[in-house]
Amino acid sequence: MAYRRADIVATALEVLDSYGLADLSMRRLAGELGLQPSALYHHFANKQTLLGALADEILRRGARPRPDGPWAEQVTAICHELRDAMLAYRDGAELVATVHAFGLGVAAPTADLTAAYDDAGLPTDLVPVAVSTVLHFVFGDAIQEQTHLQASSVGAIADQPRERSDFERGLALILDGIRVRAGEPVR
């Protein structure tokens, strides 16, 4: 059977969700597809390219409509969408954050946040800083939550899954700082 790139990415997502990022290898993926590992290289130059496509697929699957409101509402919606998409898959946060850090994909959140900040009135040199600050917060929060949940579920730590997250409050603090820099009143 001939596989398309999308079929390989979908199967890779299943392997990621079942076994985790550490056990997502080209050999395992090829085995799941009934292929020789070398056949995957027809579609992906290397594992990093596959991981980039996988991270982008996680974000694509997690996409949802966004508000047309003020910049802060748009940024909040983008951050929730990104966080929820990463948390929907085992090791999704680690994968997406790593792919972003290596510049192998995950360009959409940066572009979306940059567009949202266009209405904020920030000096242009602060827009990239605002984008990266929010992204670092979302990635870090999601990685911490996912790691805690996974460690708790296998008994590696005694803590139970957390009942609530500080995500909303932390994001609000960052947005208040951006409002101050933009000359807006803080809520």
Layout of secondary structure:
Elements (H helix, E strand, L loop, with lengths): L4 H15 L6 H8 L3 H4 L6 H16 L8 H17 L4 H11 L5 H10 L9 H27 L13 H16 L5
Structure explained in plain terms:
By secondary structure, the protein is mainly alpha-helical. The protein has one domain (5-182): Tetracycline Repressor, domain 2, CATH 1.10.357. Helices cover 66% and strands 0% of the residues. It is built from nine helices and no strands. Helix 8 (127-153) packs antiparallel against helix 9 (167-182). It is globular.
Gist?
The protein is an all-alpha fold and 187 residues long. It has helices at residues 5-19, 26-33, 37-40, 47-62, 71-87, 92-102, 108-117, 127-153, 167-182.
Could you give a short account of the major beta sheet?
Answer: none
Unreliable parts: none
Task: Give me the CATH superfamily.
Answer: Tetracycline Repressor, domain 2
> Structural class per helix/strand content?
mainly alpha
Portion of residues in beta strands equals under 5%
What is the terminal separation in angstroms?
A: 58 Å
List SSEs in N-to-C order: HHHHHHHHH
Question: Rough shape?
Answer: globular
User: What is the CATH T-level topology?
Assistant: Tetracycline Repressor, domain 2
Number of strands: 0
* CATH architecture title: Orthogonal Bundle
The CATH class assignment is Mainly Alpha
- Whole-number radius of gyration? 18 Å
- How many domains make up the 3D coordinates? 1
Please, what is the average pLDDT?
A: 90
Helices, by number, come to 9
The helical percent reads: 55-70%
